[in-house]
Design goal:
about 500 residues; 13-stranded antiparallel beta sheet; six-stranded antiparallel beta sheet; 18 helices; about 25% strand; globular
Length: about 500
Amino acid sequence: GVSVFPSITGAARTALPGLVIAGDFGDEADRMWDRLGTMMDSEAMSDGAEISQEQVSGRTVWRMEMPEFVDEMDGDMGGMGGMGGMGGMMPDPAAMMEDAFRSMWVAREGRYIVLSSSADAVRRMYDLADGVDVDLLSERNDARMLMDRAGGRDMMGVVLMRDMPVMLSGVDQMGMLAVATPILQQYFGRITGMSTGITLDGENAMLEGRMFIAMPDGKAGFTALMDSAEATMDIPSFVPADAISYGQYTFEFQGIAPLIGRMARTAAMMGMPMGDPNGVQQMEQIVTQFTDTLGRRVHMLQTRGAAGEPGTGATLVAIQCPDVPGMDQFVSMFGPGMGFEGRDFAGQRIHTMDPGGMMMMAGMGGMPGESEPFAIGLGGAHAFMGMQASVEGMLRSIGDSGARSLGDSPRIQAAMKALGDGDLVGWGWSDTAATIAESLAAQKRQMDEMMEMFADMDPAMRDEIMGDMGPLDGMMDMDPEQLAAMVGDSVWAIRSTDDGFVIDNWI
């Protein structure tokens, strides 16, 4: 078990993160404790922490005093005076973490062995063993509710928000969190905690997980726009059969304009330069003109790289768009200012932007043609956004009754059975091995391109970087077929409840 909590330490009695790691060693506790003692007395340990024994609640424990690493590095993060040289107004997070974990205790009670940064936490363990009545986390209503929502599983974790401001007060000495929290709650809702549980070898999959996000006051702001359970089990025909991942969400786009307007007015009241009221109203009108063309359903898909070119796959977003002419008019009006050029394509409309040309227009350098053009395709009651080649592929597929869709695959239909019944805000599927392999291949491709650049500029630096890569470089060359032999498909689902969101996943 692992716990992180606010710990009041030092002469200033400031709150810092505290840590407890507890292990239940059962019948092996005696042997493990003897081995720890041997390790503490070894010469290898004497070169690092200062180790001693002391008495806590009548028991002998080990205490480790860590060296002051930050002081050895000129007192702070590169001698910048804390956060960006702000004259001590902001504390140095590295120095604070060093203070939090400078003293560590190793203690034992029966079958349990504990590593902790807090002597109070060690005393608490012994109080429990001695029958002293102490407050328990499991007796807190918010903690018990969160554990129940994700409980009954092989592994479980909970994050509670109540004491988070106290724990972060050491890095928020100006009290910005207290000011920002009520504002953020207006636009995202009040989140009191999160819990997650994982079951191994479950009924439907090798690994089954559930996450619960607790919002007891209901949804607000952006989360209220994600509350419509309108996702369907239908995969659109434009999603190609060789896609390696697909996800569908519902989002109330029509609520964006008033929410953005409210955010702008709030910022203006706080003295931020957000423009005059007329400017805010004009911005709302522009956003409304855009969102009025859209529906509520969003599709995201990922394709595999071309044969022999791993890591060249594409990600594409398709948004339901009942008013394609209205969207075409909007992009035609505002797109040229962002570098978009519109044209007819395969009986549909496409607007393309050259990223290199856009950078030239913004005075940021770069050469046109260095990056693949970004495109917005309009057709088939959808707006497609992604790299030009993938958007063109989607537009070609519209009206092609002979094309195979991902939804036709028996493999996908079998995986989707785990989703069960019920109204969904969103759900998705992925070929787990293929998506991991494609991601690693893309990173490998980017790394190789960067190393080629370094080979011309500084060969010594290139060799040093490659040497530091170590096993990471080998992981990027992982065999997709070997990975696929171990891990099958993944599916996930999001449900909205009166008091939050439930996210289930299966691998």
